[in-house]
Amino acid sequence: MDGRAYGAGKAIQGIDPLRVIKKPRVILRLVSLLFSIIVFGCISSQAWYTDKEGYTWCQYNHDSNACSFGVAVGVIAFLGLILFLVSDVIFENLSSIKTRKHIVIADMGISGLWTFMWFICFCYLTNAWSRSVVENLPRDGSGRNGVQGAITFCFFSIFTWAGMTFFAVKRFREGVSATFMPGYDQDAWGTSPQQGAAPASSAYPGVGDSQTPYQEQPFGSRPAGGMGGVVTPSANAIEKVQFPTDLQQLSPAQVVRAGDHSTLSMSGGASANAVSPNAPYYA
User: Do 22 and 151 fall into the same domain?
Assistant: First the structure.
C-alpha cells in the first residue's frame, strides 16, 4: 500500500487537470472564487451612486467603510484562492514533505481566518443595509439588486470557506503515514536517515570498517636478505654483541653470523649487552 503525506501520495510526474478538479477542496475553491468575484464586483459597480449635487455615496447607509471593507475582503479572497489553486495543481508533484506541511498549515490558517472575515463582512453589510434610509437611496432603485446580492454571497462564502478549512484540518491531521516516511525525502522532513538502511560502503576496501582486512606482518618475520642485503633484525634476534676495544680495528672479515644469533668476534674485544634493534648490519 502506497504511503500518503498530507492528503496526497508520493510525488508523480506530470499533472492531470481532471484529477485535480474532481477533488472536493478544489471544487470549493472554484465556487468560493466565483462568490468573491460577485461580492467585490457588485459592490464596486452598483453599491456606489451619485446624488443630484454630485456627491458619491455608498448605498450601505452612506457608509463608505462598508463598501471598502466588502471590496477588500473579496479581492484578497480572490488572490488567495488563485495561489491555493496553483498549490493544489502542483501539490502531488512536490517531493518535499516539509513543503507540503507548510502549504497545508497556510491553507488551514488562511481558510479559517477568511471564514471569520466573511462572517464579519456579512454582519457589517447586513447591519449597514438595514439602517439605510430609503430617501437617501436612488429613487429608481438602481444598484439595489447588486447591494443585496453582495450580502447574499457573503453569507454563502462563509460556508464554502468553512468547508475548505475542514479539508485543510483533515489533511493536517492525516500527516504522514508510516509507509510513506521511510526512504522518501527524509532530509526535507528534517529527520535522521533511513532506519535500517545499510551504511554506505567505501570505495576502498577496509576503509571505515571495524576489521581491517590487511595487517602488516610482524617486524621480526620479514625475510632475511632484503633489498641490497640490508637486514634489520628484531630485538629478540640480538642477544649479545661483542665489540672490539678499538672500533676502528673491526674488519668486514671478522663479521660472523650464525643462525638467529649475531656475534662480532674480534681480538681482544670488549662486549656490549645491548644494541639498538633498529641498527642494520650486513650479512
Answer: yes
Contacts of 262 (CB under 8 A, 6+ apart): 233, 237, 238, 241, 281
In contact, 2 and 9? CB cutoff 8 Å: yes
How far apart are the two ends of the chain, measured CA to CA in Å? 76
Work out how many domains the chain is built from and give that number: 2
pLDDT by residue (tens digit) across 99-119? Answer: 888 999 999 999 999 999 999
Grid cell, residue 117, equals 472575515
* Cα distance between residue 94 and residue 12, in whole Å: 8
Q: Dihedral sign, CA of 82, 83, 86, 88?
A: negative
Is there a domain that residue 43 lies in?
Answer: yes
Q: Which of 123-132, 202-211, 269-278 has the highest mean pLDDT?
A: 123-132
165 in the same domain as 45: yes
Reading the block at residue 263, the C-alpha cell is 656475534
Classified as helix, coil or strand, 190 is coil
Range of the domain at 269: 228-278
DSSP 8-state class, residue 272: E
Same domain, 35 and 144: yes
Placement of cell 518535499 in the chain: 96
Q: Are residues 112 and 243 in the same domain?
A: no
C-alpha span between 111 and 85 (Å, rounded): 13
CA separation for the pair 263, 58 (Å, rounded): 122
9 in any annotated domain: no
Assess contact for 47 and 67: CB atoms under 8 A: yes
Same domain, 254 and 158: no
Q: Is the pTM of this model over 0.85?
A: no
CB 230 within 8 A of CB 282: yes
List the one residue out of 160, 151, 100, 99 whose CA is nearest residue 127.
151
